[in-house]
Amino acid sequence: MTTNEIQHPARVVEAIHMGNISLVTAPLKQVRIDGGFWGRLMEVNRRVTLPIQYQQCKETGRIDAFKLERQSGGQPNEWCIPWDSDVGKWIEAAALSLATHPDAELEQCVDGVIDLIAKAQQPDGYLNTYFTVVAPAKRWTNLRDWHELYCAGHLTEGAVAYFEATGKRKFLDVMCRYVDYIGTVFGPRPGQKRGYCGHEEIELALVKLYRATNEPRYLDLAKYFIDERGQQPHYFDLEAQARGEDPGKFWAVTYQYNQSHLPVREQREATGHAVRAMYLYCGMADVAAATGDETLLAACRRLWINLVHKQMHITGGLGPTHANEGFTQDYDLPNEGAYLETCAAIGLVFWAQRMVNAELDGQYSDVLERALYNGTISGFALDGKSFFYGNPLAAQPGFDGKARFVAKNYHYRRSEWFGCACCPPNIARMIAQFPSFLYSTAANELAVHHYSQSQAQLAVAGQTISITQTTDYPWDEKIVLTIQPERAATWTLAVRIPGWCRGAKLQVNGEAVEPLIKKGYAILKREWLAGDRVTLVLPMPVEQIEAHPSARQDCGRVALQRGPVVYCLEAVDNGGNLNDILLPANPAFTIQRGKSGIFAGVPRISAKTHRRNVSEWKGELYRPQGSSRQMACNITAIPYFMWGNRAPGEMLVWIRAAEARRHLV
Ligand SMILES: [Zn+2]
Fold it and tell me: How does 580-607 read in b/e, with b if 16+ C-beta sit within 10 Å?
């Protein structure tokens, strides 16, 4: 027995190893969230975002596209290949919301869209508006670029979510028919195409379809797509030749772009288009979990390590460059102009959730939480009406999110919609499914991954356990879990201690306990009785975070973080020239909570700092150093995800650190 396995005198707590038990996500319907941080976001999503996104899909022609008519006049936008995926994702978002908050009007609206989709299905089962109406001769001729299977994946996810929310099978049956047809076209058998999609997504969707229907052929097809990826001869080469193109002239240059440069088990670095990468890794983790394939899980672990140790922004944002909407090289973590698509951070959330179910390890939940409170919801305006596609960590007037000069008076801001509209319905479906991030269960285990005011009924130890969280997380450090089993029984509660937290305190029924902390989870095995209370206190001082020395863009800078929330400076609070602000070594941070408006209850961070006096500059661009004096000033930092919701202007996450902060060694 090692020292940290020694039992605390509070003998009710027993350390056990959770071992390699595979956990499953608690069903969305079983977790109820009203009020609190996420209750508010979910309500805005439900009341504002879902209706306006439906309207956008309608007005842009995405929904009417399923009528399979080339419209004259009534269709303001050019028919685009990924349109079907936007509708699939919106249906999924609506379904996930219906699962926790039934709404007859919304359900009727979704039913109407599903009726249209069902009528668009071709006699052979095929279902894609673009390739049915606009380019019928080009069906399955360019999997590399044309998102055909990707669209099928999102429609499938929508169908599964709607079936699970409402019990209605119509859309599910439509998608089963389509996928059955896809299964005749693709695969290793003679006469089949040995293809797979350039934009991964169908793999994870097929595993969802398998779980919803128990049909092993859907899992087999997912496994085929994963295993075939990157094999030689390379399918995208053969396909390009069949189109009469030179495969060497791929516009994205390398198959790293779509993660088909190597078979997936040989990939060791996250490469290429970041959203594609995340969806592939989700599919790999799903197939690994469903088949018990350790080699696939090992590949996921290697990719994870590279990603989170060398290629992830502090917000959980992924993919620094617009050029490939994706990864460049290790430690390239630019701030201004960083691309960091909302969908990529959402994909990271989805992948992390799968990894923590495969092996209970807080590193996955820590990253999930980082993305959740920072780089995903930054893409969502507080009023739920507009969205970011890219989420840079610094912004300057005049420059767009890609750090390109656009116009003198331009301010990077959220948009109501996009021509390629993947991000808006993606953030809507992530917010709607937030309750499913909180818990996972196994036969005799209940893992608590995340904290939110909530109420859940979960199947553990052969009975239904009711568990209530009372908390104002992420703003407040205290969380009370109240447990109401049907009957007394012994089982294990694994409570996550966030990696950002130092000095967490845990009590069971008011008595301090020091359980074994195994990979970031406090393991509490005991006989749980009705009304047992677990109190967790996670101290949240303001931390100054620094980046690895190889992260050149952050050298000499610090980011402010409180709890899981990363902060930023905005011009509306601090004036312009944010890069001129110097944070002293040990500033006395003060926390102010707003009384009303968007900052009601939200802690803002203030500190005394200094900067040069701009009024001393008389128009010269350069002058000898030492002639300007520093002047004292106060700064106010707000949560990064809230930026861009007030007056437009500069924004900055990584603040310059004053000299002489560190002792030389
Ligand atoms: Zn997107």
Answer: ebbbeeebebeeeeeeeeebeebbbbbb
Task: Determine the pLDDT at residue 664.
Answer: 58
Q: Determine the Cα–Cα distance for residues 611 and 620; give it in Å rounded to an integer.
A: 18
Q: Give the pLDDT of residue 19.
A: 43
Cis peptide before 263 (omega within 30 of 0): no
**Could you tell me which of 542, 557, 575, 576 has the C-alpha nearest to residue 655?**
557
Ligand 1: centre distance to CA 422 (Å): 4
**Cα of 542 from ligand 1 centre, angstroms:** 31
Give the mean pLDDT of the chain.
94
Q: Which helix (H) or strand (E) covers residue 446, if one does?
A: strand 445-448
- Work out the end-to-end distance of the chain between its first and last CA atoms, rounded to an integer number of angstroms: 38
Cα four-point dihedral sign 39, 41, 42, 46 = positive
- Cite the active site residues: 325, 422
CA of 12 to the centre of ligand 1 (A): 48
Q: Which residue has the tokens 């379904």?
A: 95
Rg (CA), the chain: 26
Number of residues in the chain: 665
Reply yes or no on whether the pLDDT at 73 is more than 60: no
Distance (angstroms) between ligand 1 centre and the Cα of 331 equals: 23
Among 545, 555, 542, which residue's Cα sits nearest to residue 607? 542
CA of 414 to the centre of ligand 1 (A): 13
**Nearest CA-CA partner of 24 in 349, 369, 446, 348:** 446
Q: At what angle do helices 216-228 and 170-185 cross, to 10 degrees?
A: 50
Q: Model-level pTM?
A: 0.95
What is the arrangement of strands in the sheet containing 532-537, beginning at the earlier edge strand?
Answer: 31-32, 454-460, 463-471, 478-484, 532-537, 505-508, 511-513
* Cα-to-centroid distance, 59 and ligand 1 (Å): 20
Residue keyed to tokens 């288009």 = 273
Q: Kindly give, in sequence order, each residue whose CB lies less than 8 Å from that of residue 16, ignoring residues fewer than 6 positions away.
A: 492, 516, 523, 525
